[in-house]
Amino acid sequence: MNTAQFTPAGTLTAEDLGRIHLIGVGGVGMSGLARLFLTRGLPVSGSELREWPSLAGLRALGGTIHMTHEVANLDGVDTVVYSSAIPQDHLEMVEARRRGLRVLHRSEALAAAMTGRRTVAVAGTHGKTTTTSMVTMVLQQAGADPSFVIGGEISEVGSGAHHGTGEYFVVEADESDRSFLIYRPYVSIITNVEADHLNTYGDLANLEATFAEFARLTDPDGFIITCADDPGGRRLAETLRAEGRRVHTYGLSPDADLRLDDMASTAQGVRYLAEIDGRSLGEIRLPIPGRHMGLNSASAVLTAYLLGLPVEAAEAALGGFPGVRRRFERKGLADGVLVYDEYAYHPTSMTLALQTLREVAGDGRLLVVFQPYRLYRTRDLQAEIAAALGIADEVVLLEVFGPGELRQPGEGSAALLEVVPLDAPHKVFVDSWEDAPVEVARRARPGDVVVTMGAPPISLMGDQLLDALTARASTGPADQAVLGTAVDPDGAASTAG
């Protein structure tokens, strides 16, 4: 079990950090933090081994990006920032401590950036990034100009971080390593609580207790928001209310404080009527489909209402919500096939995403290219992940992405493939990245929807799928029939179709 401890938020400010160096700066969370520091005018450097899309923007803001990991990267640095993905024996970590530099976890550095602001912290097993983005856009629409750091980029805005002039700081609070316990929120939003990250928590009871601990850190003058439709969220609300804490709920449940009535989701989007304390707040419309997206938006509406902001701002912001990259993100259309990218890797979020994509596919088929995220999760939730994948018509499975994990016999994607409830011709394991686009081009038909789903690296495959489909369009039927071969779990060539 992960028992990492972090220093609680104090009086340290971002300006106290001096020259800042981020190890693994290309990751979504780290690049957002780097962007925030750069837009505050602070000197920032970072090290990376892969040319992530975010790096160009950091360079444009004046960041120094080293495409190697080496001790010389720390010359002139005052503070080194790392994430939980960076091992303690990483050479830059070891050198930073040898030099006596300030070494901070990402959450500790982010807490320093939030000093003096009213923090709106969004936590939960699913929906954190989308909800954080929605809350941010609602506050922006209301003229509050919040600072924010999100674990993803708001589509069309192209950024997951901003240094605003207003009093609010909106942040996605990560529970995976307990680091969300460092924050001292004015508003705490908990979208749901389900079993995940059990390598850290051991069991659901410990996880729920830690979410309650997070909620108790909320400023007494602020408030806590949970989802009345989620069993874990409902239990949390009951516990906190029994302690006399200010808790507000949202959902379809009749006893929710903000009730969603007459909700409908189609391929064109989702709509519902919002009502609180018997008073109608009007109709909320989102241009993206999915009942879960409607629930996420309701927490943003409730936040605006409780902060005394005009509900009209929430309606306008959500009505134009562009989505978040890697969350139901449309990558493009090629040879009659729509390609999406989706971050979901937990079975609940996978199920919701794939059910929504079914609405989009209509009469077409749904193909999923899935890269599981973490061996322990794939092992512990194997049956549930397999059932979610069974919603698709075709499954192309890559090996589990689990940096630092050691695969034991019987673990990994080969074992997962066996229990996916599809006939063998409709599911396949590919053991190399390059084989996946070829396999998709061989399987997909005009009118189909393809989604890349799962661990962070799979987000880079969407453009390659579009290229493979475009290339397919220029080939004849005879050529398409022999476009590559699949690879079965034992590594043997296969032409299953």
The proportion of strand residues reads 15-25%
Describe the sheet with the most strands: 10 strands, mixed
CATH class of the largest domain: Alpha Beta
Ranges where pLDDT stays below 50 over 5 or more residues in a row are 154-158, 477-497
Biggest sheet, spatial arrangement of strands: 8-7-9-6-10-11-12-13-14-15
Domains (count): 3
Mean pLDDT: 85
Rg for CA atoms? 23 Å
CATH topology of the largest domain: UDP-N-acetylmuramoyl-L-alanine:D-glutamate ligase
Structural class: alpha/beta
| Known CATH architecture of the largest domain | 3-Layer(aba) Sandwich
Tertiary shape: globular
Helix content: 25-40%
- What name goes with the CATH superfamily of the largest domain? Mur-like, catalytic domain
Q: What is the structure about, briefly put?
A:
This protein has 497 residues and is of the alpha/beta class. The protein has 17 helices and 23 strands.
Description of the molecule:
- With about 500 residues, the protein is α/β, with parallel strands linked by helices.
- The protein folds into three domains: about 15-110, NAD(P)-binding Rossmann-like Domain (Rossmann fold, 3-Layer(aba) Sandwich); about 115-320, Mur-like, catalytic domain (UDP-N-acetylmuramoyl-L-alanine:D-glutamate ligase, 3-Layer(aba) Sandwich), CATH 3.40.1190.10; about 330-495, Protein-Tyrosine Phosphatase, Chain A (Alpha-Beta Complex).
- The chain is built from 17 helices and 23 strands.
- A ten-stranded mixed β-sheet has the order 8-7-9-6-10-11-12-13-14-15, with helices on both faces. Strands 16-17-21-18-19-20 form a six-stranded mixed β-sheet, sandwiched between helices.
- The protein is globular and about 60 Å long.
- Mean pLDDT is about 85; it is low at about 155-160 and about 475-495.
